[in-house]
Amino acid sequence: MTTVLRTEGVDFVRDGNHILHDVTLTVRAGEHWALLGPNGAGKSTLLKLLGAIAHPTRGVVEVLGHRLGRVDMRELRSHVGHVDPRGGPRSPLTVREVVLTGLTNTAEWVPRWSPTAEQVAEADRLIDVLGLADRRAATWPVLSQGERGRTLIARALMPRPRLVLLDEPATGLDVGGRERLLERIDVLQRGHPELASVLVTHHLEELPTGTTHAVLLREGRVLAAGAVADVLTGDLVGKCFDHPLRLDRVDGRWSVRAG
Length: 259
Hints:
- The protein is an alpha/beta fold.
- The protein is built from eight helices and twelve strands.
- It has helices at 43-50, 73-77, 95-100, 117-129, 145-157, 175-191, 228-231, 234-241, and strands at 3-14, 17-28, 32-36, 58-63, 66-67, 80-83, 163-167, 196-201, 213-218, 221-227, 245-250, 253-258.
- It is globular, with a radius of gyration of 18 Å.
C-alpha cells in the first residue's frame, strides 16, 4: 500500500521544552489510526507535523510523499483534510457554503468566487453522506456542536484528499451526538477505501469501528504503535495513562474501566 505519512526520528522542541522525542511512524492508504495519550503527551504537536502546519526540530516528516522543509507548506496543506471541531466560519454561512469553502481552503466565502455545478453536486453528496441532508440550508450559528463537526468533515473532503486528520472530533458532544458522528465516520471510511485518517482522542469510547491502527504517546514518546489488536490492550493503555485499566471490545467499539 502507498505510504501517506512517514515520520522518522522526529524531535520537536519549543521554548526549550522537549515535546516530542524520536517519533517514528508510518501511515498507509486505507489505514485509520487512533492517536491516544494523556494531556500533555504531545498529540496536538504531532498532529500539526502530520498536517504540515509545523516543522520538526530534528528528524524526517513526509506528508503525501513530500518532505517538510523541501515543499511549499501552504500548497501541501491544501491536499490534507484537517478537521478541528473548534474551528469554523465567523459569518452565518449555510452548511452547503461551509462545505464548499473546502475548495478555496478558507474559513469564509471568497468574494466573486462561484463553484461549478459539479462542485455543488459533490458538496451535496458529502452533506448527505454525513447525515445533514435536512440541514443543507441551515446557517452556522444555529447548528448543534455535532452538526458543526460533521459539516467540517464534509468540508475537509471536498478537495478529495488522500489524508484526513481529525482533532478530537467528539469534543463537546452528548452521547447521541457522538454516536451519530461515529456512525457517519464509519460510513465515510467504507465509502472511501483509499482514504487514510488519523483521529486524536483521549477516550477509547470515541473510536470508530473502522479504526485499524493505534499509536500511544506518553511524555512525547511512542509507547506503542501498530494494529489495534496489538496496541489497545489493558496493559499498554494502562501504562500510557498511568492507571490499571481493563479494556473490552464489543461489535468493534471499546469500553474502559479500572483494572
